[in-house]
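Entry 14. Structure prediction run on the chain below.
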Amino acid sequence: MSNWLHVAGIVRIDNIRLAMVNQSKVDQVNALKDIFGQEKIDFRKDFKDVITKRFEENIPRGSEGTMKLTVLDYPVEEDWGKYDPKVNLSQGSLYWGDVIFSGDLRDEDNFRIISNWLNSIEIPEGCMVRNGVATIDDETSIHVVHWSSDDSRWIIS
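Output returned:
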């Protein structure tokens, strides 16, 4: 008989530095360079690429493959196109997007693999996990992993 972990979770990613309207243009440009390595970003491409790469590193696998991962971005306006702080300083949002993950991991019986994976993810400088939760069903019980702002890490409830 196979062991299975059934996993479903969501993580909210925020950005603090870019949302500060009173920042100087130089500070906002430097914030973009720190996070994305460039002065202008395309939210539809760059945010998804950077976050997806970070979450895909060491993603848990079962004998039949990995979990599925989706990154949703939420720019303030649909027609932002390129965000250039030299032009649109007032357009910024704390809420950048969500990472949704789910899957069935066959031949994996250690539910802690999910919290270990989440704690290993390096969130880009200037971004933060606002909150998140994952449920893990190991076919004997359901475990909940949630983001603890107080501890700045994922913990098992």
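The mean pLDDT is 80.
Filed with the rest of this week's runs.
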